[in-house]
Amino acid sequence: MDQKNFRLLFSVPVVVAALGYFVDIYDLLLFSIVRRASLISLGVAETDLLAQGEHLLRVQMAGLLVGGLIWGIMGDKLGRLSVLFGSILLYSLANIANGFVTSVDQYAWLRFIAGIGLAGELGAGVTLVSEILPANLRGYGTTIIATVGLLGAVVGNFLSKMYDWQTSYFIGGGLGLMLLVARVSVFESGMFLKSKEKHIERGNFFQLFTKRSRFLKFMGCIFIGLPLWYIIGILITFSPEFAKALGINGAISAGDAVMYSYIGLAVGDLLSGVSSQLVGSRKKILKVFLLISLAFIVGYLFLPIKTIGFFYFACFCLGVGAGFWALFVTVAAEQFGTNLRSTTATTVPNFIRGTVIPLTLAFKVLREQIGIIYGALLIGILTIIIAFIALKLIDETYGRDLNFEEID
Asked: How far apart are CA 343 and CA 332, in angstroms?
């Protein structure tokens, strides 16, 4: 790529989208980081921490499901910038309010509202960047967003060690409000503005179900990401409980497990995004990372080394294997036309986040029947199998011209 094109990767929309996703991940993962400390502070007994944590995680993910629909449709009807402003304002205020909760019920309602807000950031950012960058740079642009954004979990963990859990929520909300100022300088997608002039139907979610091929692609995009949130939502979020079952010698911090896994995710996203550009294929790289994920899942659950350091290394490896988040969202954005692009790019990652609800419910049943280790293994293998089937349903989109619409 020539130097002029290369500079486009550091244009205002790319930088602001990356910083927006950074704040998004900080706020999204903060609950996993401060789960135990916050629930203990609210008077939850040690024996109920896992169950209450699962409940609050499901509530947050339900908010993401609802928000994915709201912001995705809004992004196609009103524009990408409307989502970038509205979503960050909602989740910033909700996270500030999280610092004032005095009961689990209040906590649950605010995690639901924060989930709605958090749903809009990634899809709108990826859609905007995908549409303003030339085809040969799209993968690099979305990789920058994901790599910078995922480091929000690392910062969240460090700040949670420096401050109490309430202050950590206040900081997250404050960072979001500060980002609103930077958003003022971002310009709207030219593709969206041209599509708007054509007066065609935009943001009709049900249009995804009116053609069999379109519906299958939509389902394929969703289920490719199933292993990713199985890893984050179960193996990492409940890492202290897994460490205990594995006989790890010492106490494991959920915050540290999240931090190391998200460092791995940033590395994996960088590798998968760049590799897909160099190889010239999205699907081939997705297959490779699904196999890597399977290998690291088995290693996490069964390798005999019992030291704290090795356990955190296993969390890092899980993150690397699951580091196809940016690639997965890029594929979703590239599958569909301009009038449905925001809808799909926003709903797909949030529907995947929402699968944490059935995954944790299935995990609860299985761990009571066959134990926490084998229950997690069974679910993990199933998610990998489903993801491989889903890959067959989508198109190879590397280098695709995105200037088209979905018309029945």
From this structure: 10
Q: Are 212 and 153 in contact (CB under 8 A)?
A: no
On whether the 10-185+208-391 domain is CATH 1.10.760.10, my answer is no
Spatial CA neighbour of 70 closest among 86, 94, 89, 92: 86
User: Could you count the other beta carbons within 10 Å of the beta carbon of residue 405?
Assistant: 17
Domain locations along the chain: 10-185+208-391
Q: How far apart (Å, rounded) are the C-alpha atoms in residues 201 and 147?
A: 34
Q: pTM of the prediction?
A: 0.81
Distance CA 400, CA 135 (A): 7
Tokens 């935009």, located at residue: 202
Cβ burial, residue 299 (10 Å; 0-12/13-18/19+): middle
Contact criterion met (CB below 8 Å) for 324 and 344: no
**Tens of pLDDT, residues 183-233:** 666 666 666 667 666 777 776 788 888 889 899 999 999 999 999 989 988
How many whole angstroms separate alpha carbon 238 and alpha carbon 241?
6
pLDDT digits (tens, 9 = 90+) for 73-99: 887 887 777 777 888 889 899 999 999
